[in-house]
Design goal:
Layout lengths: L2 H28 L6 H9 L5 E2 H8 L3 H13 L3 E4 L9 E4 L1 H25 L1 H27 L1
Antiparallel strand pairs: 1-3, 2-3
Helix pairs in contact: 2-4, 3-4, 5-6
Length: 151
Amino acid sequence: MTDRQELLSGMALTVFKLNGQFLDIAEGLARPVGLTAAHWQVLGAVLKDPLPVAGIARQMGITRQAVQRIADILADNGMVEYLPNPAHRRAKLVAPTERGRETVQRIEPAHAAFADRMCEALGDDLASEIHLRLRELSDTLETLETREDAR
C-alpha cells in the first residue's frame, strides 16, 4: 500500500470512529426526551426551513429511503408534518410541528453542556479549526465524487 493509500485509509477509519462516537453522544442526548439520534438529525435538518425528504438525505449524507422511514415515524408521533411543496407536486416538504420543536428544545441544555465540555477540552480555536478542516474534507470528497459521476 502506498503512503497516500495509508493516509486515505487512516482518514476514513478515523471518520468512521468519529461517526460512531458522535452517534453515541447524540443517542445519549436524545434518549431522555424520547428521540433517537436519527430522529433528532431529521428534526434538526428542518428546524430552520422545511425540506423535501431528498433534500434532508443530501444534507445528512444518507439514503432518501432511510430519511423517509424516519420522517414517517416522526409524523406518526406528531413531531413533523408533510406540507405541499410549491417546487414539486409529489415531493412534500417535511416541517417540524410545535411538538417537534419543543422536543428538540428540551435537548438544548444537555447539548450546550456537552459542547462546552468539548470546546474546553480542545480549546475554541482548535475546535473551530477542526470544524473548518472537516468541512473542507467533505467538500473535497463531494467534488471528487461529482467528477467521478461525470465520467
